[in-house]
Specification:
binds adenosine-5'-diphosphate; globular; alpha+beta; Rossmann fold; 17 strands; D-amino Acid Aminotransferase, Chain A, domain 1; binds magnesium ion; Dna Ligase, domain 1; metal ion binding; 5-(carboxyamino)imidazole ribonucleotide synthase activity; four-stranded parallel beta sheet; 3 domains
Length: 376
């Protein structure tokens, strides 16, 4: 096999997806002297706004995929749900990083959990629930409470149905669920953390510090970096993320979401082979942030250490209510504002984020964080 190709500044990186993750990847790529071309079905997308070019088209439209590939040297993703045929076509035309196998694994929660088990990574107990009979068997095996999730295309808690007890199951309209589903035992976690891990073409692995994530209405609200956990636990989380990245032969960047259980165990919740919302703090607290790490890994360039030079809290700006706080944020010294350039602030839509930096080792407790967030 020939050695993987290296793409140097001046080359064009193709990003599938036009959202904020693509936008911030494109900005990191531009800083390193790369050109960026975006594939998205959306006119005026956040990523296309800061890229050299855009192919407007659906992710499974062969003509659009061919046009996109013709404009780029190497392909990566900010949105990983491209069809198997679309991925195969892209792969036949250009290097695709991360590769098809890992994308297909992360697209399907059953494939993902199966692969994680093969890699020795513990998860919540789960059963496939692809139809009503499997769901009955899953409930018999797992008991209540449990969570049903669509196997594909879920994000920000969408496509999830908590079943706290038998009464909730009885109330479920069994004809209506969007099969196929996966049933997961409900994890009464102590906290949620994540690790961003990058892996280069030469197998170099870099892990950013573990981050604690706090969700509101199923959407990430706050990330605390570093996660306020024992150093051994933080280290174990990085080791686990590195093991999964190596096992999946990642080339690129991946977010690994985990639950910390009451006894200090780690369960992998899900993986996302792309930049991740819980890694946004790295933009203001690391020498090379997650987006630069993503670009470097995809281009085949050396990966610098994931070095953090400060502590940070990241707060998502969701919908019109948070957007109304922009003037106050701009007037607050020490709050770094990142906006995604979305025209319309619909409720539940991620519009931007704010990072608050603290000196290294000085992340405050809950009260201090609340005070620093002020009106946010
Ligand atoms: P999404 O793709 O929407 O991020 P996740 O599987 O990460 O889907 O679920 C979103 C959130 O729902 C998680 O971050 C966690 O707070 C909660 N959650 C998901 N699965 C479980 C589970 N098995 N037990 C307890 N909480 C869960
Ligand atoms: Mg998640």
């Amino acid at each position: 096999m020939s050695a993987p190709r290296i793409f140097r500044p001046g080359a064009t990186i193709g990003i599938v997806g036009g959202g904020q993750l693509g936008r911030m990847s494109a900005m990191a790529a531009a800083r390193l002297g790369f050109h960026v071309h975006i594939l998205t079905p959306e006119t005026n997308s956040p990523a296309a706004e800061v890229a050299r070019g855009v192919t407007l088209g659906a992710y499974d439209d062969e003509a659009a995929l061919r046009d996109f590939a013709a404009h780029v040297d190497v392909v990566t993703f900010e949105f990983e749900n491209v069809s198997a045929t679309g991925l195969a076509l892209l792969e036949s035309l250009r290097p695709v990083r991360p590769g098809r196998a890992i994308l297909e694994t992360s697209q399907d929660r059953i494939a993902e959990k199966t692969r994680l088990a093969e890699l020795g990574a513990a998860t919540a107990p789960w059963r496939p629930a692809r139809d009503a009979a499997e769901l009955d068997a899953a409930i018999a095996a797992l008991g209540f409470p449990l969570i049903l999730k669509t196997t594909r295309l879920g994000y920000d808690g969408k496509g999830q149905f908590p079943l706290p007890d038998a009464a909730a199951f009885a109330a479920l309209d069994i004809a209506a669920p969007p099969w196929p589903l996966i049933a997961e035992g409900y994890v009464d976690f102590d906290r949620e953390i994540s690790v961003m891990v990058a892996r280069g073409i030469d197998g170099t692995v870099r892990c950013f510090d573990a981050t604690q994530n706090i969700h509101r209405n199923g959407i990430l609200d706050l990330s605390l970096a570093p996660a306020p956990v024992a150093p051994e636990l933080a280290r174990a989380a990085q080791d686990l993320a590195a093991r999964v990245a190596e096992g999946l032969e990642l080339v690129g960047l991946m977010g690994v979401e985990m639950f910390v259980t009451a006894d200090g165990g780690l369960l992998v919740n899900e993986i996302a082979p792309r930049p991740h919302n819980s890694g946004h703090w790295t933009m203001d607290a690391c020498l090379a942030d997650q987006f630069e790490m993503h670009v470097r890994a995809v281009a085949g360039l050396p990966l610098p250490p994931a070095m953090r030079h400060g502590d940070a809290v990241m707060k998502n700006l969701i919908g019109p209510d948070d957007m109304a706080l922009c003037d106050a944020i701009l007037a607050s010294p020490g709050q770094a504002l990142h906006l995604y350039g979305k025209a319309e602030a619909r409720p539940g839509r991620k519009m931007g984020h704010v990072t608050i930096r603290f000196p290294f080792g000085a992340l405050p407790g809950e009260a201090g964080i609340s005070a620093a967030l002020g009106p946010l």
